[in-house]
Amino acid sequence: MSTTFSSLPIVDLAPLQAAQGPSDSELKDLSTQLHNVFATTGFAYLVNTPLTFRHADVFGLALEFFNLPQEEKMSLAKQSFRKGNTNTYRGYFPTQPEQASDNLKEGFEIGSTTSVETRSNPTRDSRFDLSEPNVWPAKDSYPSRQRLENFYSELQILSSRLLSLLAMSLGKPADFFDPYLTDSLSTLRLLHYPPGETAATTTPSSSNDTYSRDNTTTPPPEPSDPVKLSCTPHTDSGILTLLHQDSTGGLEVQDSSGKWVPAPYIPESIVVNIGDLMAKVSGGRFVATMHRVRAPPASAISVDKQPDAKMKDADGSRAKFGRFSVPFFFEPGENCVVRAVDDDTGSGIVYGEHMRAKMKTWVEYN
Ligand SMILES: O=C(O)CCC(=O)C(=O)O
Ligand SMILES: [Fe+2]
């Protein structure tokens, strides 16, 4: 049950780093901790994760992409942004200030590196191919492709381990959700929020026009508290989200009373939250919490970015300014039938159909 809170809990994943693996009692303890945070705040920080990527590595990968010339980024744009392109689901999306002044972000998304041919029975329609291959800049423009793919794999493995712990916490065997992950559609997204002067002052939008797999819903009104947003209030739609945010700040999470609680930067931490799908699968025990991002101030340049040699601004790119974040949306396969763990009625929803229906309401696909 969602609760009030004034800060997010911290879950220490150090036991997952042990060479000999966690003990049974450590696993049980982690499972209970995760259950408790996801049943209350729905959001937590993870520290001492087993990832080999440090924050500087992660934001280096993002900066290298966003510092590419705009035309090169647009050559990777999804079809809804560049008609001649064939990629419908993976690739680049630019900021769209004319569509949503409270949703100012550019992004680059990749899915699994498993080739589509090896995937079982993808259901395609003419508009969106959820299993389409990734698109990439030329090798010498983006030498970090392999590292980004490795990062995706590490995040998928970590998410799977967390999902096993959640299965245990719901009274199921650790491998209960393994079938969900056949041909998983997880997405790794690099995000850049340009500095605040371009973001309009706004009361939070009631539009559903987020550029993402986010589920944007109407937040409670805040007439006395107009804020500049660059990511409009939403819940995420999948199983879990693992978020790397830089030190700019601005992420806020809504508690059950409607209050927005800051989720400030904690060095080397990952923010984790439950998506709509996992809230449903848990039979309502876990909560998919609303969150948003304040527009970064015009002066925003976080310490993570400063020492990087790639900061040179040859083409006038302003990518070094603003906020960077890297969410990983952990999602099941397209053909996965999703139902609540204790629901024996046989009903369920096919995840791919659910995603396609949702995408029709997102501005980037219309
Ligand atoms: O940039 C952030 O910190 C959050 C992004 C987010 O919530 C999303 O992309 O779903
Ligand atoms: Fe989100």
Automatic annotation (TrEMBL):
Residues 183-332 form the Fe2OG dioxygenase domain. Residues 199-217 have a biased composition (Polar residues). Coiled coil: none annotated. SUPFAM superfamilies: Clavaminate synthase-like. One of its GO terms (biological process) is small molecule biosynthetic process. PROSITE patterns: FE2OG_OXY. GO terms for molecular function: metal ion binding; oxidoreductase activity. Keywords: Iron, Metal-binding, Oxidoreductase. Residues 196-231 are annotated as: Disordered. PANTHER family: FI07970P-RELATED, OXIDOREDUCTASE, 2OG-FE II OXYGENASE FAMILY PROTEIN. Belongs to the iron/ascorbate-dependent oxidoreductase family. This is Fe2OG dioxygenase domain-containing protein. It comes from Talaromyces rugulosus.
